[in-house]
Structures are given as C-alpha cells and as structure tokens.
User: What shape does this take?
Amino acid sequence: MIGSAAPRWSVWLPPLGLMLVSALACAWLALQPTPGSNVVALLFPPWWSAARVFMAAAPAGQVIRFGLFPDIVILAPQPGGVPPGATGAWTVLDPRHLGGCGAVSVQEVQNE
Assistant: This one.
C-alpha cells in the first residue's frame, strides 16, 4: 500500500507545481504599476524601521502614508526624483490592488 501511494503523488506534483507558479506569476503581473502611475506602493524589508523606510522612500517622491505594515509605503513619485525601484525597496506595486493599502485617489495625493 505505501509503495502504491508514492507514484500517484509523483504524477500530480508537476502539474500542481506548474499551477502554483502560474498563479504567482499572474498575481505578480497584475500587481505591477502602470507606467506613469500617480501613486505606487513600495515594499521594503520587514526588519526595517518605519523611520528607515521613510528616509529611503523620501528621495523618490512624496510619502503619502504607510500601508498595512510599516515596511509598505504609499508614495507619489516625483518626475525628477529617484526612481522608486532604486530606493532599496524589494518591489514596486500598484496600491489600488492591495487590500491593506486601500484605494488612493488623485485628489488624496494632491491634498496631502
């Protein structure tokens, strides 16, 4: 019995792995900001303090607020500023698609 269970799982592992990788790739592509976005979310290492995250993100634009966790910053990039990807952030995402970041409107960016 034990020997017969192993071959069944070995048949299902490659398709399950492919499905998982495909789902992660689709999610990653869906979370990417569109070029010229007014607002982006920067994800920094989780062990960084909020002050360090703020100091790293500030040269790229106006920090609007932190996300659900202090290692996520919602930022309005400045045209002449440092590219958001060059701030030490692990990734740059679209905050409209992240539940903890909330929807960010252009009026909110201009008012802050």
